[in-house]
Design a protein that fits this description.
8% strand, two-stranded antiparallel ribbon, mainly alpha, 6 helices, single chain
C-alpha cells in the first residue's frame, strides 16, 4: 500500500533539510523567488556555482562546480528515496514541475506544487526521477562549463545517494519500504555502476568508498566522507 504524496512530503521535512520539498499547491510557483529547476541545466547553473564558490571561498571553478552538482544530487536523491522508503511511492520530479531557490546558507530549497507519483516499480521510478530526468541534463551542463570528468560527476551522484540512505537508516530505521535494496539496485546500474564499494551491515549502517574524487581535497585540510584518496598511495590524485 502506498501513501499519498503531499502528506508524505510534509512528513519527510522532519527527517532533515535535504529531504524537504514543499508540496503546497500555488497559483504562482515562482512566488518568493523560486525558479524552475530546468534553469539549472542551462545558463542558471553558472549563477548557482558562483554562489557556492562564494560560500566556499574558492571562486566559481571546478571545486565549486563539483560541490554544486553533488549538493543538487543529494537534494534530489533524498526526496525521491525518502518518499520511496516511507511511502512506497516516488514523486514525479520532472524539471518542469520542480522549483528551487538558493538560500544564503544550507541546501537549496525545493518546491513541488501538487505532487503526483511516477508509475512503475520503485527501483525504476527512482532511476527515472533522478538519474534520467535530472542527473543527465545537470551533468551535461556542468561538464560543458567547468570541464569536470564524467567519473567525478558519477561518483558525486553515488555519494549523494549513499548519504541519503545513511540519514534514512539513522533517523527512520524501521521504514516500511527498506531503502538499502533500492540503493544497491541503483549502484549496480548506469550511471552509478562502478562508482565505488558499498557495504551494509544490519545495525551498523553503511560504508561507501568511491573510485573518483570530488575535489574537496583541494580545500585546506578537507576530504569528503567517502574519499578515494584514503586508499591511494601518497602523491596520487583521482
Amino acid at each position: 500500500m502506498t501513501t499519498s504524496l503531499a502528506p508524505l512530503l510534509t512528513r519527510l521535512t522532519a527527517v532533515g533539510p535535504y529531504f524537504a520539498a514543499d508540496p503546497t499547491p500555488r497559483a504562482d510557483p515562482s512566488e518568493g523567488g523560486f525558479r524552475p529547476v530546468a534553469e539549472l541545466y542551462g545558463d542558471g547553473i553558472a549563477w548557482h556555482v558562483e554562489e557556492i564558490g562564494r560560500r566556499m571561498g574558492t571562486g566559481a571553478g571546478r571545486v565549486a562546480a563539483s560541490t554544486a552538482q553533488l549538493g543538487l544530487a543529494s537534494r534530489l536523491w533524498s526526496v525521491a528515496l525518502g518518499c520511496a522508503a516511507l511511502g512506497g511511492v516516488v514523486p514525479d520530479l520532472g524539471p518542469g514541475r520542480l522549483w528551487w531557490r538558493g538560500p544564503s546558507a544550507g541546501p537549496v530549497e525545493l518546491r513541488l506544487p501538487g505532487p503526483r507519483p511516477l508509475p512503475g516499480p520503485l527501483p525504476e521510478a527512482l532511476h527515472r526521477a533522478v538519474a534520467v530526468d535530472h542527473l543527465a541534463p545537470l551533468d551535461e551542463a556542468v561538464r560543458g562549463r567547468y570541464a569536470l570528468s564524467p567519473q567525478i560527476l558519477r561518483g558525486n551522484a553515488a555519494s549523494a545517494l549513499v548519504g541519503a540512505v545513511r540519514v534514512l537508516l539513522d533517523r527512520v530505521p524501521n521504514a516500511p519500504f527498506p531503502p538499502v535494496p533500492l540503493v544497491e539496485h541503483l549502484l549496480a546500474r548506469a550511471p552509478l555502476e562502478g562508482t565505488g564499494t558499498f557495504l551494509h551491515e544490519e545495525g551498523l549502517g553503511v560504508a561507501f568508498t568511491r573510485r573518483s574524487c570530488c575535489l574537496y581535497y583541494r580545500l585546506p585540510a578537507a576530504t569528503c566522507g567517502d574519499c578515494v584518496l584514503r586508499t591511494r598511495a601518497p602523491g596520487r590524485t583521482a
